[in-house]
Amino acid sequence: VAARVEGPRWLITQARFQEALKVLKWAAKVNRNTLPSDEVILDAMTYIEKQTLLERSKEEMEAPKEISCLRSEEEKEEEPKERSCQRSEEEGELKETSYQRSEEEEPKERSCQKIEDEGDELKERSCQRCEELNEEERKESCESWAMKVVRHFSILLLNPHLRLRTTDPHLYVFLGGLLEVPSYLLLWPIMVFVGRRRSLALLFFTCAVCIFSVMALMLIQLNELVVVVLSLAGKVAITAACQLIWAYTSELYPTKVRSLALGEANFLARLGSLCSPYINDLLGEVVVWGPSALFGLVSLVAAALALILPETRHSDLQEALKH
Fold first, then answer.
1. Residue 300 in contact with residue 204, Cβ under 8 Å?
2. Burial (Cβ within 10 Å: 0-12, 13-18, ≥19) of residue 150
3. Hey, which of 45, 89, 244, 258 has its CA 20 to 30 A from 2?
4. Contact, 210 vs 230, CB < 8 A?
5. Half-sphere exposure (Cβ direction) of 245: Cα atoms closer than 13 Å
6. Distance CA 184, CA 73 (A)
7. Cα gap 70→234, rounded to integer Å
8. Using CA atoms, how far apart are residues 101 and 95, in angstroms rounded to an integer?
9. pLDDT, tens digit, for every residue of 103-127?
10. Which one, of 254, 237, 251, 270, lies nearest residue 197 by Cα?
């Protein structure tokens, strides 16, 4: 008859660790598994034994409490009915007195509720008012911030002492070169939508107006900043006009003489640019407003002559001469 093998759990609770270790090794060998070292397994067994003893002691301590609770419940059931009746009457009296007190306290509660409601309404109104004030302050702060930024970046031109230093010849030349970019961008839409002839006349006329305005300001010795702005505006107009002349000249003349016309026009333009510094220096020493009057007059004549030319928009390039 085969010997009975006890389970390892029961052997551990009985502190029979070596026997439990043998059973675990045999089970591991049958299942082809490996176990940790004997020391680790024995430590685990000791821990399990301690936990089992703690559970048993807790159960033994809780058992008398359950018995005492059962006895107290039986004694409560055997109390005389008179005591329960007296208690119920006392409880009824307490309920009546509490009901009377609650009726007396109702007006107080209502008044308190009204005060709380009024306080909540006041809080809501004050919060709304604060939000409105905050929005107004934000708007004012944004406007003041924008004004500060504008003043900060325009301080060089608004301050008279700094303006004299800022609008020197070198900066004027730099701004004149920089403003050629918007003049080129402005030229394309007016050529397409307005036409060549009217665009050229308008640009020459704008340049003439700017030059005559500068001449008038020089005579009355007004603000120098306005003079600079008008001079740069005239620079934009005449730069766009010069670029338009190249395209317009190519469209005015047929293919056989187009190169000749462009060459002669460029030669005359270079003569004008060669003479302009001498006109400015020599005539300016005699009459301060003389160069401006001459250049403005030439621009005005050019605007009038441009109106005589034919319009070439939406027209094909000429190939042969017309006799």
1. yes
2. exposed
3. 45
4. yes
5. 21
6. 106
7. 112
8. 10
9. 444 555 555 565 566 556 666 666 6
10. 251
Query: Smallest Cα–Cα separation from 264: which of 253, 279, 280?
Result: 253
Question: What SS3 string covers the chain?
Answer: CCCCCCCHHHHHHCCCHHHHHHHHHHHHHHCCCCCCCHHHHHHHHHHHHHHHHHHHHHHHHHHHHHHHHHHHHHHHHCCCHHHHHHHHHHHHHHHHHHHHHHHHHHHHHHHHHHHHHHHHHHHHHHHHHHHHHHHHHHHHHHHHHHHHHHHHHCHHHHCHHHHHHHCCHHHHHHHHHHCHHHHHHHHHHHHHHCCHHHHHHHHHHHHHHHHHHHHHHHHHCCCHHHHHHHHHHHHHHHHHHHHHHHHHHHHHCCHHHHHHHHHHHHHHHHHHHHHHHHHHHHHHHHCCCHHHHHHHHHHHHHHHHHCCCCCCCCCCCCCCCCC
Mean pLDDT of 14-28: 84
Distance from C-alpha of 44 to C-alpha of 145, rounded to nearest angstrom: 75
pTM as predicted? 0.47
Q: Are 269 and 213 in contact (CB under 8 A)?
A: no
Q: Which percentage of the chain shows pLDDT scores above 90? A: 14
Of 251, 239, 252, 237, give the one whose Cα is nearest residue 202.
237
* Phi–psi pair at 15, nearest 5 degrees: 65, 30
Write the pLDDT tens digit of every residue in 47-87.
888 888 888 787 777 666 555 555 555 555 544 444 544 55
CA angle at 263 for the pair 308 and 309, rounded to the nearest 5°: 10
* Alpha carbons 176 and 238: distance in angstroms, whole number: 11
Contact assessment for residue 291 and residue 213, using Cβ atoms and an 8 Å cutoff: no
